[in-house]
Write a structure and sequence with these properties.
Elements lengths: L7 H27 L13 H25 L8 H23 L3 H23 L3 H6 L1 H21 L7
Helix pairs in contact: 1-2, 1-3, 3-4, 4-6
Length: 167
C-alpha cells in the first residue's frame, strides 16, 4: 500500500515557493498604499497589479523545476544536497526580500538581498542544467524577472534614499 500518492511530491514541490509569497503578500498589501505609493519610481516600473500574477507563475515554474530535480536524483540524498540546497538558499533569500524592502523599508538592504537572490538563482540554474535541462529552463523567466527587479530596486533606492521615512 502506497502511503503518499505518486502525485503528492509534484504538488508539494510546486506549491512550496508560494508559502513565502503568500506571507510576503500580506506585508506588501499593507505597505503599497501607505509607503510604496509615496516613492519615486522609474517610468518603466510595472503596474502594481502585475506583480502577483508574475510571482505566482514564477513560483509555480521554479517549484516544479525543483520537483524534476528531486525526482531525477531519486529524492533527498547525497546527490541532491547541492542542487536542492542552492534552491533552498535561494528560496530563503527570495522570501526575505519582502520583509526587508516592504516591511523594514530598507531599500539598500533589499537590493543586496536581491543581488544575492539572483546569484543563488543563477547557481541553482547552472547546477540543475546537467541534472534536468527542463528544470533549468524553467528558471530562465525567474532570472529575467530578478534582473528587472534588481534594476527597479536599485532605481527606487537611488531616487529615494534621502527621503525621510514617514512616522
Amino acid at each position: 500500500m502506497e502511503v503518499v500518492p505518486a502525485w503528492a511530491p509534484a504538488v508539494g514541490f510546486t506549491l512550496l515557493p508560494h508559502a513565502g509569497g503568500l506571507l510576503g503578500g500580506n506585508i506588501t498589501k499593507r505597505e503599497i498604499p501607505t509607503w510604496y505609493q509615496t516613492l519615486q519610481k522609474p517610468s518603466w516600473c510595472p503596474p502594481n497589479w502585475m506583480f502577483a500574477p508574475v510571482w505566482g507563475t514564477l513560483y509555480t515554474s521554479m517549484g516544479y523545476g525543483s520537483y524534476l530535480v528531486w525526482k531525477e536524483l531519486g529524492g533527498f540524498n547525497e546527490k541532491s544536497v547541492v542542487p536542492l540546497g542552492l534552491y533552498a538558499g535561494n528560496l530563503a533569500l527570495n522570501w526575505a526580500w519582502t520583509p526587508i524592502f516592504f516591511g523594514a523599508h530598507k531599500m539598500g538592504w533589499g537590493l543586496v538581498t536581491l543581488l544575492l537572490t539572483t546569484g543563488t538563482a543563477t547557481a541553482t540554474t547552472v547546477s540543475w542544467y546537467n541534472i534536468n535541462k527542463a528544470a533549468a529552463y524553467l528558471m530562465i523567466p525567474y532570472l529575467a524577472w530578478l534582473s528587472l527587479a534588481s534594476a527597479l530596486n536599485y532605481r527606487i533606492w537611488k531616487d529615494n534614499r534621502n527621503k525621510k521615512r514617514p512616522e
